[in-house]
What we know:
Blueprint lengths: L1 H5 L4 H6 L5 H12 L6 H4 L1 H11 L6 E5 L8 H4 L6 E5 L9 E7 L2 E4 L4 E3 H12 L12 E4 L18 E7 L2 E9 L15 E5 L6 E6 L2 E2 L18 H15 L3 E9 L3 E8 L6 H5 L4 H10 L6 H13 L1
Antiparallel strand pairs: 1-6, 2-3, 2-6, 3-4, 4-5, 7-8, 7-12, 8-9, 9-10, 10-11, 12-13
Helix pairs in contact: 8-11
Amino acid sequence: xxxxxxxxxxxxxxxxxxxxxxxxxxxxxxxxxxxxxxxxxxxxxxxxxxxxxxxxxxxxxxxxxxxxxxxxxxxxxxxxxxxxxxxxxxxxxxxxxxxxxxxxxxxxxxxxxxxxxxxxxxxxxxxxxxxxxxxxxxxxxxxxxxxxxxxxxxxxxxxxxxxxxxxxxxxxxxxxxxxxxxxxxxxxxxxxxxxxxxxxxxxxxxxxxxxxxxxxxxxxxxxxxxxxxxxxxxxxxxxxxxxxxxxxxxxxxxxxxxxxxxxxxxxxxxxxxxxxxxxxxxxxxxxxxxxxxxxxxxxxxxxxxxxxxxxxxxxxxxx
Length: 319
């Protein structure tokens, strides 16, 4: 499937095959359908969570937030009575600055990888978040503390330590392409492809695996567990797609990426949204995105609800 991408000798051939490049994505899609005034709705995870709650999208619960340096010392009060949680920057990107705590006792914090952190180390991490170390553009940020997702056992053989997710590309409210992102030992338990996670393209009509890729190399077996990636079939698939479709109404963004996790108890949950989703999803799917967006432009109906748009996609792609 990576050979599929490398088989094109020049940019003209890539374009002819329907591969959407960075420049075309920025100028033909994002600049047309994503007003910059709407970016804060997805760049700030607190605002995103608040909006999601208003429209009924399931998200991890917000435990608390820290906005100023002098409030960093309040972390012990915020997490009182809890043994697990996640600390992340409100305006972070690429998984940077996300600290997953799986256990907490006697002022010792245990991360998802089993590393033990002291109060001072966690305090410093929060301070770094507030100073903008992990935020978009290095701006002063807010540290948010939210509930830990207990991901479904359906992914336990496909993921290393971290939380796997599903990325759905949504265009004009219609789910256009999807993949699951699976943490590996090399990625440090994070689900970001550029850090070494696995991307598995998913059939948009079924949620079943199509192709796998890791660091731009085809892959069919999880290197840390030996599991067959081609046996992946995401349950509650329609519910995943509905979350992505609802995100369109929620934000007004014509082109977005919805990152969704499957909690063992609460089902599909929206983790975050992205107004500039990357294009590696094309490699994972072994197909270009440009033609699919054009098909939505030219042949998909308007005036449908989120659920109707999802059902239209499921029926059309199943044919």
